[in-house]
Give the backbone structure.
Amino acid sequence: MKNAFIGCLVFSFSFIMFSISLPQGIGVTIPYASADDGFNLVISTDDGVIIVDQNGTEVGSIPENGAVEIYENRIFIVRFDTILEYDEDGTLHNTILLPEEVVYKSGFAVLPGLQFALFDNTNDKIYVIDSDGTYLTTVNIHPEPDSGLQNTDGVVTGNRLILSENGNMQILAIDLTSYETTILKSFPFLSGWLGAIDYSKGVFYVCQMRNVLSFREDRLGKTVVATVPEGNISGIVVDDSVAYVTANHAGILYRVTLSTGAVEELITGLRNPEDIEKLPLGMPTSTTTSTDPESDCLATALYGKNSEALVTLRSLRDGMLRQTPEGRELIKLYYLIGPAVVKALRKDEAFKEDLKRMIADIVSTIGSFSEYK
Ligand SMILES: [Ca+2]
């Protein structure tokens, strides 16, 4: 029993190391550009989540991919059956296991009071869960699920979640007290699809393949704000007079001047950018426990930043574990018990030394295997 437990710990510990090391073999960097910038941009790509300043210069990264949301100064990434919560410096802070009621997820939103709405475009439902993973309720996007896989992006305004779209070119408003759903806006004369949505100062911005549209709740019609040269638009965030727009197929981050519709390329060559959010800078931290990033970085403490062991473990993760259901189960296991391992290691210096030796053995065995490939 104890051996099994230690085996779990070893694997978990391995994944802790993966989760805090970048593909390039350097530690997670601090996502601050400068103190006065106001916000950075967080973009999820196939190469992980990158944090860039408003000029597109990378200032940090998290080696996980998945839909990303920001709440206060925390970064949330949906990954497998969990929501990972990162501090603004990229330190894994918390892991929320999704309840079994969440059948499928095609995006999510963080709701006021730190709840989560997970969108399911297959079953056309929205699952609402609490910050500890407790299932709260299900909201129907349609009375009966349709066969289409519509985009699902949400923005919270006041006590409502605004969802784009329901598959019929309609934007829904969900009251977050009664969970009553109404149609906020209908675009029956537009062709194609509606996708990423954001809201700023009384105006909604919703994207199609290459167009950014704006509309107001209390007025008829819409305005084409800008057209990007290459699509598909996959994400938008608006800040005052500027929108930042990702195009997944084109691999581009665009900056759009809302008053003129002028479009400029900020970053090219991104691998499938799917989601973009604003990360406010300089907010007081409101997380419940404070952690020292250095002491969290066990891999660095044990093996050093650019060690061979980390490279080997990383190739094990990407080359083997992610390829099989069993491997993915182990990854899930890490998310389940990883935080507890960190705590245990902090308390027990001898245990830490034991684990270090065991991991060294595993790494050296894998290293020998790969030499004979
Ligand atoms: Ca659907």
